[in-house]
């Protein structure tokens, strides 16, 4: 009876956390969409193009921040404590900003951008990447309600200044300057949110907010993927090379995995742009909105489950996979039934002829959602080369579309769906294969 009540309470907490993180994600996406919408109304075409280009570069430069968050969250969930995250986070942010500064002259000339924009890009990148440290700490400690607040604060910092500048009728440089300032101002708030709870709060916190030690770790969670218990305090690193001190290698691995996930999920869209006529590539871009929707809709599940994956919780992995598969199946079925409505909402009446392909676009995104969860599992458990299958699949997709596929929307889409399927199967085999003795 007590066990059932405990499970119910845990389910309620995770449900509330899921809702909070979902709302924070929606706020982030809404603010991100407000910027180009306002820019289209407040800026000239040339200024809008410059600002949009810099924001796209900023999204690419933010990849180390996502990798830092994943690495810190996994390490903190597995070992607890700081583990040098502060120093490593600062170094990661500084290195990323330094690369952006070094690339500024090239970007200025190649993309015909004002030099002030490319230099401000480095400053805003520093703030965005550094924020990954505190988001990772909150995620690793499973303080998801605070994580939702931190995500909202970060979104307000990244986009609030840009929105304010556009509302005031300023140009791209002034808008990005305001955005950089608000992004930097958000950092102390994130640090405050991620600060350890006071002793009084810690005493009343749910037991899942910190990784259990050897005396409190449940039997189901005690064994890692190979069924071997994790090292206790004071022991040497285990055979996988995982250390109690967060290492640059772990951050680099997580960054590489994040980059691989973004690359494979956008590869078909880029290939369509290269290989298809202009009208067909535009139609493919409209359909890819369904792919991205099916991909990102269940990502809150991956975010919530990552700390448990880091501790080798097999049941949490299976539950997360079941939830993501269910979400994907629902979205694919919905796109099959309402394909015309989906394309009418996304692109308008000119794209209704693609309604029959709606389930294929959605299925591709749903499979990549599974891949992303499994890649995060491999990163969290310190597996070697966690994203290798994704790079292989990306290369295979590029070759297949260039050499075999018909130069049509269906041809490129079929290759993308095949690549997603093969990658999902390969990742599932790597994650669920029997451990070597």
What percentage of residues falls in helices of 4 or more residues? over 70%
Q: What global shape is seen?
A: globular
Secondary structure tally: strands: 0
Task: Count up the domains.
Answer: 2
Q: Which percent band covers the strand fraction?
A: under 5%
* Helix/strand order: HHHHHHHHHHHHHHHHH
* Rg value: 22 Å
Structural class: mainly alpha
Please report the number of helical segments. 17
- What does the main sheet amount to? none
Distance between the termini: 38 Å
Uncertain segments are 203-242
Return the average pLDDT rounded to an integer.
Answer: 83
Please provide a brief summary of the model.
The chain has 437 residues and is mostly helical.
